[in-house]
Amino acid sequence: MPPAPLSQKEIEDRLAELPGWSLDGDRLARSYRLGSHFAAAALVVHIAQVQDELDHHSDLTLGYHTVSLTVNTHSVGGAVTELDFDLARRVEDLAAGHGAH
Q1: Is 57 helix (H, G, I), strand (E, B) or coil?
Q2: For a disulfide at 73, which of 17, 59, 66, 81, Cβ 3.0-4.6 Å?
């Protein structure tokens, strides 16, 4: 059974628990700044690993010292679901471990 889309209120409540994350159209979005390009690339690799573990993938962009991602759940027509917040929380933990801000 596919995950259920979250209501606007549910999304707002969950975003309040994830500083730095926002709703960009129909996607959760976050950018991180790191100390070097290598650190940013390492974070991307770790995010990719978590995405494979969750079988839930974001659009992920590596910049010079930055990592940006956006995510929604394609299997429910591109709505935001609890899967997206599960991924966002895991990415937050990884980013903190990499010294991202």
Answers
A1: coil
A2: 81
The CA distance from 97 to 77, in Å, is 33
- Looking at residue 2, what is its pLDDT? 82
Residue 31, H or E segment: strand 27-33
Two structure tokens written together for 66: 């930055």
Q: What is the pLDDT of residues 29-74, one digit of tens each?
A: 999 999 999 999 999 999 999 999 999 999 999 999 999 999 999 9
What single string gives the DSSP state of each residue in 64-83?
SSEEEEEE-BGGGTSB--HH
- Cβ atoms 100, 32 nearer than 8 A: yes
Q: Are 35 and 42 in contact (CB under 8 A)?
A: no
Q: Is the pLDDT of residue 1 over 90?
A: no
